[in-house]
Specification:
single chain; about 190 residues; 7 helices; about 40% helix
Length: about 190
């Protein structure tokens, strides 16, 4: 599967990094796009720079993984065209500014344009919004995107699996994203198991 993973400037870069790790380990072809603020937040929260694909692949011992990095301003990238649309796109974390621009049909960056392509081509677009509390504007934009076909997967971990670490909480949310993509995982114990 060809998947675009976007990381925006909302807090919660760990979700995007952990998802990237799982996608690469599962043998998926991933294109990573990070906004300028997404890069800054990721570096601040995790110490990880999103500058080189080889560095990211080496981080998880996956030198052969299929990872491409694209600049947020690269509107010539294949992912910006419906004729080369990827199979799915995930924005994790997804800032409310990004939600608002996608909901308004604004395609000023590769992240926004690729999301627009996913909606118009009726392909999976998963958004992991990171904001609290939500304003009415946030909720209206999320509803608009849901009605347009996006899947809203908020960063809301469950506690029935009795998480013991922060990694357990992150893995639950990342597992929910993987579920929506149809990718098998063992990141959390399912209810009743």
């Amino acid at each position: 599967m060809r998947i675009v993973l976007a990381i925006t400037g909302a807090s919660g870069a760990i979700y995007g990094l952990r998802l990237l790790e799982e996608l690469l380990q599962a043998g998926q072809r991933v294109t990573l796009v990070a906004s300028a603020s997404g890069r800054e937040v990721c570096r601040f929260e995790t110490g990880v720079a999103l500058d080189a694909a080889d560095d990211l692949k080496q981080r998880w011992g996956l030198p052969e993984a299929d990872l491409t990095l694209r600049g947020v301003d690269d509107l010539w990238a294949p992912e910006a065209s419906g004729s080369a649309a990827p199979d799915a796109m995930v924005i994790a974390p997804c800032s409310m500014g990004t939600v608002g621009r996608i909901a308004a049909g604004i395609s000023g960056t590769l992240i926004e344009r690729a999301a627009d392509v996913m909606l118009k081509e009726r392909r999976p677009l998963l958004l992991l919004p990171r904001e609290t509390p939500f304003s009415s504007i946030h909720l209206e934009n999320l509803l608009k995107l849901s009605q347009a076909g996006a899947r809203i997967v908020p960063a809301m971990p469950a506690f029935y699996q009795k998480p013991a670490t922060m990694e357990d909480l992150v893995d639950f949310v990342v597992g929910k994203l993987l579920d929506q993509l149809g990718i098998e995982h063992r990141l959390f114990r399912r209810w009743g198991n």
